[in-house]
């Protein structure tokens, strides 16, 4: 019997810019690390434009970074999605609050994307070793990251959040992309196969 896949959920507002960018980038990187099917990355929005494809500028920047947006459709965030996840990564602290309002027990495994990158940056290879499956590994990383909260210099909202580019100028989409791509290596190192 094969182990159940690890599940990561990414969350933003409309589910057409930030969270699909995170979903597709993380899925590609974790497929490279664990092999396809070991980790499932999905996304949803707190005010989702249900059924919409990824926003054109966000899609272009995602593809420029080597990831695919094909077949993406926005969906609404619900409590079951949060409960089924091993790790929830939000675009902002406000989104994190909305996730926790739906499923308070998710406090142990819900972080902003940039917060997680900050919290796992000091973890060693030894810290990350030892999980039997991808799902176990995601749970372990969430636990280790939660243990780092309150240690060291706290992040400001500006450093924890990913800027919302929706209906804003191209430079805001570039800023979103820069924020995501700067945090991605630390997150992938932590979530990838040890």
TrEMBL record:
Residues at the catalytic site: 12, 18
Limits of the Phosphotyrosine protein phosphatase I domain: 6-190
SMART domains tied to this protein: LMWPc (SM00226)
SUPFAM superfamilies: Phosphotyrosine protein phosphatases I (SSF52788)
Keyword ATP-binding: no
Pfam family name, one: LMWPc
Keywords (A to Z) from UniProt: Hydrolase, Protein phosphatase
GO MF, one example: protein tyrosine phosphatase activity
Highest taxon above the source species: Bacteria
Family membership noted in the UniProt record: Belongs to the low molecular weight phosphotyrosine protein phosphatase family.
Name the record gives this protein: Protein-tyrosine phosphatase
Lineage, top ranks: Bacteria, Bacillati, Actinomycetota, Actinomycetes, Micrococcales
